[in-house]
Structure prediction request, 345 residues.
Amino acid sequence: MRRILAALLAAPLALLIAPTAAQAAPDPDLSIESVTLNKTGVAVSGLNTVPITVTVKGKYDTGSSTDAKVPVNVILERTGGTGQLQQMLSTNLVRNETAGTWSGPLNVPSTANGTFKVTGVITGPFFPPNPPMYDATPYAGPSVTVTGTHQPKVTAVVTPKVVPFNQPYTIKWAVSDAQTGKPYGSRIRVELGVDSSCVEYFGPGYTNLTDTNGVVTKAYPGQAHMPITCLLLPGTPDAIGWLSFVPARPAIVSAAPSKTSAPVGTIVPVNGSVRGGPFNCPVQLQRLYGASQWRTVGSAAVRQSGRFTLNAQPAYKGLIPYRVSFPACRNYVAGVSKAFYIRGT
Prediction:
């Protein structure tokens, strides 16, 4: 689950073109002779894109009469720079059967600031929401240097800051110029998505519009499962910028000892749970020292069921206060259980 979550929170394109277990090899019917770009460098500002013509020379032959209609997409990987994009994908390049080439634009955004190198070609068309059938055919091609200025920055304010289970919440999204800190001054079309829609890009037909300050607010229903939420900035064929995250949840911890009294030195299992089931997050058994100092005396991890087991061991005769502490983990804030007692005998 953590690996899936990390992928969802990363670049949409990166998840879509990453090889999967079902993908064994590049398309055997695709062969590449060369990939060329008509520019070695471009300057891009703000939310604009600058087209670069990409030409692929090669062959696609399955023996079908429709082979000439199959497009390809060229993949470029970041080799330097600091823009948000780590990969770029060309548009669906159109086949010219007579010339034996595919050609079309690569739309370069300011968030590509840095250097990108052609690393492969994949049989098209661009594939959301389904992954491609094959891996990309590797090709070490040319590079392009992008000078991206006034890159967009996306921010979000969640209300309430920590969202209770099954309670509605709102997110105020804002798109601004990272260089000046000011809005672009126009209404911006964006996609406000949750979970899989944060990586399944369906093109520029977005229905959400910011105001002229770059702000749009959306209300979300209460849920037991807190979804990944995102704002995507439209591009062709993929998003040119985004922010995705999981809103904060409270750590609601319950715990109780299997025995309320035990001989000194005896191990007493303490069973409990954390609401929402934050799998593999740590929990700590703490014992009260003096009037107010809680010290950790044991630790464990939350199981997939959301439950955990810790071991207490009464150190002296008398009533001993314990509690279970949950340190902040992923989108869960820190929390503690109610105190409970074990009498050492």
About this structure: The helical segments are 2-9, 12-17. The CA atoms of residues 30 and 46 lie 36 Å apart.
